[in-house]
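Workshop exercise sheet. Pairs work together: one partner reads the sequence aloud, the other fills in the structure field after running the prediction. Swap roles for the next sheet.
Pair: D.N. / O.F.
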Amino acid sequence: MLLSALNILGGYDLAKLGDRTPASMHLIVEAYRRAYMDRSDYLGDPDYNTIPAAELTSKKYAAAWRASILPDAGHALGLADPSRRIPATRSQNRRPPAP
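Structure field:
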């Protein structure tokens, strides 16, 4: 989860935004929100769950998540809908969303 969040943040110049500024904290919070969403999707016994670790930690996957972060606003809604929050790079062999 930490590596996923750091990969998402890797595309931003946080030093330029400043230490603990609203802009930098916004990006950090949004990156961790996305990493925790992936964590909750794949949390479980690896003997019974397929965890695509290479995909979840890839730079391409992080870029897809990064594209979903609005620079000046949080996501009050929409991310709860799995069809709107999953980056297009995610494999299709995961459990289907709840009806």
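Discussion prompt: Residues 92-99 have pLDDT under 50 and may be disordered. What would you look at next?
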